[in-house]
Amino acid sequence: MNNPFSDFDPCGIEVSAQTLLAALGGEARAASRGEFANTAEGHRALLAWLKRWKRPVRVVMESTGLYGLDLALCLQRAGVELMVANPRAVRHFAQAMMKRSKTDRIDAEVLRQFAARMPFVAWRPPSAAALKLVAVVRRLEALTEMLAAEKNRLHAASLSEALPAIVRRDVQRSIQTQQRAIQRLTRAAQEFVISDPELGRRYQLLLSIPGFATTSALHTLAELALLARGKTKMQALVAVMRKLLHAIFGMFKHNQTFDGTKVYSLLPATTPELATQEVA
Q1: How far is CA 74 from the centre of its chain?
Q2: Secondary structure (DSSP) of the chain
Q3: Would you give per-residue pLDDT tens digits along the chain (280 residues)?
């Protein structure tokens, strides 16, 4: 392990959708704490808070997907030493420290101790193409939700004789507009993938999985461009998903197309119906 509190002061940042809770300080003094909004303005305030510290700072935060990406990029661009830790490793560290309670304040302190005592692995940001892909996929997800809502409205409008026809026509136009936008964004996402050899290779491998089409492959690729960590478990379904994620990483590593016999033979015998479900 690293010698704790040697040439830097450790900082742990607990990330949630709305807030950032930071614990900063070395062994010689009590940790200083700060709370910031998880927004661009909050990120700048956090960075200024770190810059006021008299000693070099080393930051650790957990991998939280999109919630922490913008903060990580902000810190990395500012030259702050940053590690994005695997949540499972942090959880095991907390157990070893006998930290059984779980609050944001405690989690930030655990991450501060993790930064001080565990081997430091600097975070490497995704490629420019991967970041563009994530941004487009975010928008695709939002448009897909909006499209589903408009289709529900159209269905309801078609059942109501009291609703004027102009309302139905307006909803139909909205649906057409969103469908065209989804098509444009999908083409753009594919262009970003093709522009990056590694993303392009992985995209073709994903398409070899039965049930994976363009949309599901793009969404999965965008997520795996950011995360290399274990997922939380949800009974048998997540066990199946976990096997599929292992298969995907194996495909990426060995540059092989999908072979279902290597996956389904390892699935729990009590969930055969899940093994045959297609990925939506």
Answers
A1: 16
A2: ---TTSSSEEEEEEE-SSEEEEEE--TTSPPEEEEEESSHHHHHHHHHHHHTSSS-EEEEEE--THHHHHHHHHHHHTT-EEEEE-HHHHHHHHHHTT-----HHHHHHHHHHHHHHSPP----PPPHHHHHHHHHHHHHHHHHHHHHHHHHHHHHHHT-SSS-HHHHHHHHHHHHHHHHHHHHHHHHHHHHHHHSHHHHHHHHHHHTSTT--HHHHHHHHHHHTT--SPPPP-HHHHHHHHHHHHHHHHHHHHT----HHHHHTTS-TT-HHHHTPPP-
A3: 444 446 889 999 999 989 999 999 876 556 799 999 999 999 999 999 999 998 899 999 998 767 888 899 999 999 999 999 988 889 899 888 877 667 878 899 999 999 999 999 999 888 888 888 988 988 998 999 999 999 999 998 888 888 888 999 999 999 999 999 999 999 999 999 999 998 999 999 989 888 778 888 888 888 777 654 333 334 444 555 666 777 777 788 778 787 655 554 444 433 333 333 333 3
- Determine how β-strand 81-85 pairs with β-strand 19-24: unpaired
The model carries a pTM of 0.62
| Separation between Cα atoms, residue 56 and residue 263, nearest integer Å | 47
* Pairing between β-strand 9-15 and β-strand 57-62 as defined by DSSP bridges: parallel
